[in-house]
Amino acid sequence: MTGHAEARTPETNKVRAIVRACRLISRMNRLRPDVTRSENLYYQMLSDYFTRLLDARNNGDFIAAHTVFFPAELLYAMDLVPMHTETTTWMTSLFTGECSDLLEAGSALGLASEICTPHRGLAGAFSLGAVPRPDVMLWSNMVCDNTAKSGELIMELAHCPGFFIDHPFKDSPEEKQYLVGELEDMVVFLEEHSGRKMNWDRLSEIVARMDRQVQLTREVNELRKSVPSPFGSRRFLELVTMDYLFPGQPAAIEYLETLKQELSDMVAQGKGAVARERFRLMSLFIPPMYLTGFLEKVSQEFGAVSVVEPFFTFWGEGRLDPAHPLESVAQKSYMLPEMRMYGPLDDRALDAITSCAREYRIDGAIYYADVGCRHTCATIKLFKDTLSEVDVPVLTLDCDVVDPTLTSQDEIREKLERFFELLEDR
Amino acid sequence: MKTAGIDIGSLTTKAVVLGDDGAVFSATASTGDDRGQAARQTLQAALAEAGSGLGEDLYLVSTGAGGRALAFSQLQKAITTCLARGIHHQLPSTRMVIDIGAESCTVVKLNHRGRVDDWASHDKCAAGTGIFLQQMSRLMQLSLEEMSVLSRRAKGRADITSTCAVFAESDAISHVHRDPPTPTEDIIAGIYHSVVSRIVSLCKRVGIEKDVAVAGGVALNEGIVRALSEAVGFAVIVPEDPRITAAVGAAVLARESMEKGMS
Amino acid sequence: MREGTQTSKTRLPALERLREINRAFPDAEQLRELKRSGGRIFGWLCTYTPEEVIHAAGILPVRIVGYPQETDLDDGTAYLYVNSCSFSRSCFQLAIRGQYDFLDGVVGGSTCDGVRRLFDLWRHYMDTPFYHVLNIPRKYTEKAHRLYYDEVLKFKAHLEDWLGQGISDDSLLDSVHLYNESRRLLRELYDLRRVDAPAVTGAETLEVMNASFRMPKETFNQWLQELLSEIKLSVRAHANRVRVMVVGSVLTNADFIRSIEEVGGLVVADELCTGTRYWGDPVVLDGKTPLLEAISRRYLGNFPCARMYPSDERFNRIIQTAHDFRVDGVISQNIRYCVPYCHDLPLLTQRLKAEGKPTLALDVEYGTAGSGQIRTRVQAFLEMLEARKR
Fold first, then answer.
1. Which of A373, B93, B119, B126 could form a disulfide with B108 if both were Cys (CB 3.0 to 4.6 A apart)?
2. Is position C248 within any domain?
3. Domain hosting residue B248, numbered range
4. How many CB pairs (< 8 A) connect A and B?
5. A88 neighbors A131 (Cβ within 8 angstroms)
6. Which residue from B67, B113, B72 is spatially nearest to B89, judged by alpha carbons?
7. Topology of A14-187 in CATH?
8. For chain C, which ranges sit under pLDDT 70?
9. What span, in angstroms and rounded, lies between the C-alpha atoms of C84 and C338?
10. B residues 107-166 near C, CB within 8 Å?
11. pLDDT score of A11
């Protein structure tokens, strides 16, 4: 098994590629009058995040790699440099159109092709030295086995210590207490390895901002209920990324406040994200990254907008209290949109779908069936049956979130066309 | 103005003209290399059946693999929409139609108004399609009709995988060369079962609901239809001409479109 | 490849009786008889579910399994989708086709994605009267043990509430003794394969295991006791075979083991959920720990499933077993889409190699009998191992 080589060449350094792509997009956007300020802010934020990561070694910073839904608030509070591992794989696919070298490297390690591409890709990235070597690897079981099992392999590949957060299945008081205990242990671990102390005041500030961040996201979601809906399908990833990369960060607040204002203005003027809104869609799971541009085109052509993503942008109930920072970080993990799909799929989770369908006046739903994501695909039939109770048809698109070789654009287009015809015919 | 529908498949082109009373006039021809040419000829033949000529006013809806590129159709519709409308016109009690084409298999759930509720399809591989049956027919050195007739006599059923056409073919070959050889009828029964299994699992993805109809060229194969009925546990129904179902649907859509335009 | 030797007196009546129990499951006459006479049956999954609690409530616990062999999984696939492991789809298909309608309750844990969703869908599509899912921690820390104790307490309380009566400590103690006795007897059975020429094969052992979790433990213990006597009295000996350990998750089709044993191997040890992991460790009664806590500790700390952290716990136990049973090589049967076990494979293979144990990794579907391609690969692996021995 290969060790970790320092990322030297531009071709293999994926983080550098992401930074370049973000800067390029920023430059191009500045030349276009129709690009909003929030979008510009977003790309600037991405560029800053990955640049900080790129320069971390030279600056003597401490890099903490972590998996998705891991509470990066704690890392920011200790002034460590976070590296969100799955996002690095996605963004590589998103901005360069493919990440086959990472996937092949992951397979070469002996990882079965059933291990989902974001995780196979990130293991491959570490083995190739395509991302900066982290000082610690932090992961949890949120929200699936793939994530739960990815950490130990990364620790071997990157020759670094690691900490696993065991997130309980349900939200009883005892389980929540256990989670807080896990977070406490992790703070101790980080203090030991980084030589820095947790700044509890700063964490409280971050939690306060995180509370505001969730509130703003809810307000943005409210605006998306308007007919026509002001926020395009293409941009939903921005909302998702706000929590993945920038939880409780001032830049995230600025982005959301700016976005909220822009959307309010559009709603006041009766303007929508697409020229002529014909179909309001619910998205279940994530559209493939490399198809973002293509789906945007289709969206404009057919007047189809994804107005709600119940398990990606729609937060669970609850508020965060800066006076109890660690408990709040634990609480927030239960409020995360995707976490409602993790814990027992009880009526609460299903009601969230039907109420979204009603409140957003959904015409149809698209389930992006990512072949590597077992636990989401296992809900396709259940969600279909649930949505049929409110008379919403569901299209299932077989795909892979980062690997473009699985389905062709033509096939996807044909399926979407059939679906839009189905919706029109009703 | 006359209304017509045309389904340009990879192997055959089907054209349907709707009479004023809903009567169906049709023609079929092989697609060949020039889709436009095949479309024109088939349409002409169907119009002749209806007692008209190509020069008259015509509202044409096209569908199928070659439907998009057709320059002289007024509208292009997805095959799923056409199948639903078509089978609804042919057999109104249908709630699920299985279209077994040359290269693909599509299952469409429709409601009592002939509208699509859901669908599922196999586009990526030959298992469960007409091409696979033709492959098998060549392998067994029997025509499709002969296979269908022989399948009636099967007492047992050879074990032939339904996962992949390539593996299925090698399973069939090994049965032919077995010592003593597996009876031909049983091999055919096994082949049919393998085709039907794929189709049934596709149906289950959208949920089986009676009445279930079969369309497409393969629906003329009694053996397959019988095997399908056995697999789902009740009789599946076949329209008088299952090959033209999608074209009928296209023609119905043409009429709907025209009527909407006039109102 | 030298032929293995086996002597003639091979009939084991007790084994035949156990096989009979397996034959019809889940549609077994014994279970139907039990229900007719007013008995109750709960289905459970996985090895972390505290069976003693169910048993102490006077309910028969049976392990939920899928079809006994690989089969078409159309219905299972329609619900759980094509990329869920075939084990979860197989189990669900049996359920949705009514084969588990006799169950009065289902109890499971948040063990892995496949089982988690199996239980989610079971809850929505089945009408089983009692339903409970425990949160199973993924760690072995003191905090984790405390949490699991709390989970087991809640489970017991829920069950008592549903029954309308309490589960006494005396009943629990009786159940623990009964289950510990099973574990002791199974360990004895397994220990028979430590020797050079074991009297019992891996396939036979798996058949005994299958019966163990689908019949009353009282009867099972008795039959197993008889089987052990019969074996001792017999002159069976399987000598000159390549000694193999099978690792992986769920395996119930003994034909798979048989196919290894028909081409020169002898499966002398395993780590399977339906094998060693089931009986693993006993409940330790030290006189100080509350009974229910002793139970929860046993279950959480038992021979690990690949879902647990750190993986080294599982690896170390596998390596220990491999050394104790002097295996020549390891066969890892990985059910397609089984993430925890597939993810472990690269590191496990590496560790085993360092201990001088080569590994053969086989991609399987649940229920496979191990024919064709698998058999060829196994044979090649065994020949390689044999060559190394000489």
1. B119
2. no
3. 2-86+244-262
4. 29
5. yes
6. B113
7. Rossmann fold (3.40.50)
8. 1-9
9. 8
10. 162
11. 47
